[in-house]
Amino acid sequence: MPTKTVTRRKSTEKTFKTNDGTTNGTGKTASKNSNQAKDGVTDTVNRKEAQVEYKERRKSQADSIKNTDPELLREMLYQMVFGRVFEQKCAEVYRIGKIGGFCHLYIGQEAVGIGSIMALRPEDYVITAYRDHVQAIIKGITPESVMAELYGRAGGNVGGKGGSMHMFSKEKGFFGGHGIVGGQIGVGTGMAYAQKYKETDNVTLCFFGEAAVNQGIFHESLNMAQLWKLPIIYICENNQYGMGTSQKRAMSISNIASKGDSYGIANEFVDGMDVLAVRDATLRAIERARKESLPTLLEIRCYRFMGHSMSDPGKYRTSDEIKKYQERDPIVLFKESLMEAKIISAEDYAKIETKAKEATEKALKFADESPLPDEKELFTDVYA
Ligand SMILES: Cc1ncc(C[n+]2csc(CCOP(=O)(O)OP(=O)(O)O)c2C)c(N)n1
Ligand SMILES: [Mg+2]
Predict the structure, then answer these.
(1) Nearest CA to ligand 1 atom 14
(2) What does the alpha-carbon distance between residue 280 and residue 291 come to, in Å, rounded to a whole number?
(3) How many Cα atoms are found within 13 Å in the side-chain-facing hemisphere of 198?
(4) Per-residue pLDDT tens for 138-179?
(5) Could you give the count of Cα atoms lying within 13 Å of 239 in the half-sphere of its Cβ?
(6) pTM value?
(7) Ligand 1 atom 25: the closest Cα is on which residue?
(8) Which of 72, 108, 297, 349: CA 20 to 30 A from 278?
């Protein structure tokens, strides 16, 4: 039988008003997709198109730069460069066996974690999946303790017993590092419930990949978050692949932001190669969460430059596709925008790179010198 799919599609994708019409905090229907991607957006290999997009991003960054503190802009660039250098080193030392087990890198996605987490206050919470090294550092866990954790040493933030996927610090409000796809969405929703129950005005950022959206926990959590009006920002990092499976092959409706409409949750599609677009969208969501105690779903479109993990042979995508996205590198884009706005010079950038390399070396030295966990730690902190 020939396949015929289109006729019912409109009705599944339309937006819905919440019961009282305003409770999603936008004052209108839930969808706020002004820059919503059309069908499939950026996943065709077309270099010319990529260059045009790059120029457009530069223009929009120039506008945001005018409204942001130059010191903060420099710090954001430093953190992005540091995240990149730190993880390039992780790949290097993994290959010589200093890091064992799973290791998922964030290279290419830095703008998402840095743009959003740097918009928070220290008392706010973050919870994420296993691609967690850079996000943990931005939330305040030291690079030394992240590297030592990767090395499985006692100086790691969970004493060397968690490893790459399980960075954690209650003091810093970073609640993992979770290996079960989607598991953190339910826990994060509970964290936001606690923030509200205790009458704080703090918020939770809950990160997950696009593959987690197909899990039941995503839908159950979003329903509860809007029903109970929880101060949570769900950040779907849509890097377009779940291990070796492209989103196109796994998801019936690729417009993830619009899935918030099913639960009356305010939602936005965001360009994840543009750190300032991420920051601006997160600030809007934070305000909604703090002032009105309402959730938001952000779909942040990005791309991972490395494999799913260090053991991924990467046969499911072409090198041309990867190159196309590397041409839109979020760090290069931001650096060029800051140079054009005269916020940094070429000399400043060279200093930023040197500082990032030195900080990475310091973390490596700390990890190398940190002892293995003591034998008596074998049965502490073990719950199952
Ligand atoms: C419940 C569950 N099913 C399957 C897996 C195996 N698995 C590990 S990562 C992954 C892909 C997840 O992709 P995505 O959520 O898009 O995150 P990304 O790796 O792209 O950051 C899968 C299927 C798992 N860890 N947990
Ligand atoms: Mg993914």
Answers:
(1) 209
(2) 17
(3) 10
(4) 999 999 999 999 999 999 999 999 999 999 999 999 999 999
(5) 28
(6) 0.90
(7) 180
(8) 349
Å from CA of 300 to ligand 2 middle = 11
How many angstroms separate the alpha carbon of residue 268 from the centre of ligand 2? Answer: 18
Q: How large is the greatest C-alpha to C-alpha distance in the chain, in angstroms?
A: 66
Residues 6+ apart with CB under 8 A from 116: 205, 233, 235, 278, 279, 282, 298, 300
Q: What is the helix, strand, coil percentage profile of the chain, to 5?
A: 50, 10, 45
Q: Are 289 and 261 in contact (CB under 8 A)?
A: no
Ligand (nearest to CA of 104): 1
The percentage of residues in the chain with a pLDDT greater than 70, rounded to a whole number, is 88
* Separation of alpha carbons 212 and 116, rounded Å: 19
First and final CA of the chain: distance in angstroms? 51
**Token pair recorded at residue 365:** 């030295």
Ligand 1 pocket residues where CB is under 6 Å: 131, 179-181, 209-212, 239, 241-243, 308
Distance, CA of 242 to CA of 124 (rounded, Å)? 28
Separation of alpha carbons 267 and 378, rounded Å? 44
- Angstrom CA distances, 70 to 77, 113, 119, 122, 343, stand at 11, 19, 15, 20, 6
Residues sharing a CB contact under 8 Å with residue 54, sequence separation 6 or more, in sequence order: 327, 328, 333
